[in-house]
TrEMBL record:
Originating species: Anaerotignum lactatifermentans
Coiled coil: 282-341
Keywords linked to the UniProt accession: Coiled coil, Signal
Signal peptide residues on this chain, from the entry's feature table: 1-27
Name this polypeptide is given: TolC family protein
Length: 390
């Protein structure tokens, strides 16, 4: 089963489908029914459209702005120049490889050490560059899903506040007629205030998120965009066994690759010593190598646990999706019943509005699950972003 979200507008569309719009703006003729249809545009329709921003465009802006990527690029150029200098001095560039300890002349050791250090630095810089780009991609993706998710929350909160305002106004009338106590009216007032405070808080939260997002991209803090980010929900399919997935990811995980390079660096220092050395540092060098191997082993174990936990979270979210979908279906059914009862004179318009609000809330809960599911799959497939116990 697939389910799609488009530009974070699902809640607004759901509300438009179940809430009646006010009528007094301009008219259009329906030739089929011969009835004049009155239509009032929403503020969103009359406002100046925001410029669209795709995920790819946002990521390009963020990479261009990133000082970390610029620093890594500069360091990469420095290492390349160092490698070329070594080549010019000796006529070749080679990294030694030995599995046992040996003493070599100070001159050869100096060249080997410089070559190994430069080669290791270039490999680490390349890994760190890839990791930084991935982290930046993850940050941009997180801003997209967070902003769209909170926009969905805000739409639902605004509708809840509207219904609560109506309920409070009716409560004041009932209180005047003696049909509601002062205590009950005060409770309604508090609930209404809380509902409107929730709207204000979400608006403030969105404002902060946009300012941080704009800073990441190098945009003006006041700039706003129509985020183009369509999310499609479908149960995740694991190709192969979990063990195969883990092994494949450990072979390409940037965190693991850095630890493996650290082991190679420790091996070089342990296996090559200059002839002028008296060997007094040998035990320390062996200890450093042992620690590097232990660190690599621990990193792989923790990463494996994080991968398994991430997959479990995906499965949990899929159960949550089924539950949220069932809640939405029930809310839609309750709304239809409320409409029928309104026509029969059994309930008020407020009851229908409350049922419509329940649909909007259920739709919003479903949206949140879809956004979280999408992000969790992204983390599961990009294990370098997973912590030791994510």
């Amino acid at each position: 089963m697939k389910y799609s979200l488009h530009k974070g507008k699902t809640v607004a569309l759901a509300l438009a489908a179940v809430l009646c719009l006010p009528a007094t703006a301009f008219a259009a003729e329906d030739p089929m029914a011969g009835i004049k249809v009155i239509y009032s545009p929403s503020p969103e329709e009359t406002a100046e459209p925001l410029p669209e921003l795709t995920f790819e465009q946002a990521l390009e802006k963020a990479e261009k702005k990133s000082p970390d990527l610029r620093s890594l690029a500069d360091y990469g150029e420095f290492l390349q120049a160092t490698k070329e200098d070594l080549w010019d001095k000796t006529g070749f560039f080679s990294v030694p490889d030995a599995s046992y300890r040996q003493w070599i002349s100070d001159y050869v050791y100096s060249y080997y050490s410089a070559s190994q250090s430069t080669d290791s630095g270039m490999k680490q810089n390349a890994i760190n560059t890839s990791m930084t780009k991935l982290a930046l991609e993850s940050t941009v993706k997180n801003y997209f899903t967070t902003i769209l998710s909170d926009e969905s929350n805000l739409e639902a909160a605004k509708e809840a506040a509207k219904v609560q305002d109506t309920s409070y106004e009716q409560g004041k009338l009932k209180n005047e007629l003696g049909l509601m106590s002062d205590y009950q009216l005060e409770q309604l007032r508090i609930q209404t205030e809380q509902a409107n405070n929730s709207v204000a808080l979400l608006e403030y939260t969105l404002e902060q998120e946009y300012q941080k997002f704009n800073s990441l991209m190098g945009e003006d803090s006041e700039a706003r965009f129509d985020l183009v980010y369509d999310v499609e929900y479908a149960p995740y399919e694991l190709h192969g066994t979990m063990e195969q997935h883990i092994n494949n990811k450990l072979n390409s995980d940037y965190t693991v690759l850095l630890k493996e390079q650290a082991v190679k660096d420790a091996e070089f220092k342990n296996n090559y010593l200059p002839a002028s050395s008296d060997g007094s540092e040998a035990k320390q060098l062996q200890l450093n190598l042992d620690n590097a191997n232990r660190d690599l082993k621990t990193t792989k174990e923790n990463k494996e646990l994080a991968i398994r936990n991430a997959y479990s979270t995906i499965l949990q979210l899929e159960t949550n999706y089924d539950n949220a979908q069932a809640s939405l279906t029930q809310a839609q059914a309750d709304y239809r019943v409320a409409q029928i009862n309104l026509q029969a004179g059994n309930v008020t318009q407020l009851s229908v509005d409350q049922a419509a609000l329940a649909v909007a809330k259920a739709q919003n809960e479903l949206n949140q699950v879809v956004y979280n599911h999408d992000m969790q799959i992204y983390l599961f497939e990009n294990t370098s972003l997973l912590g030791s116990a994510s």
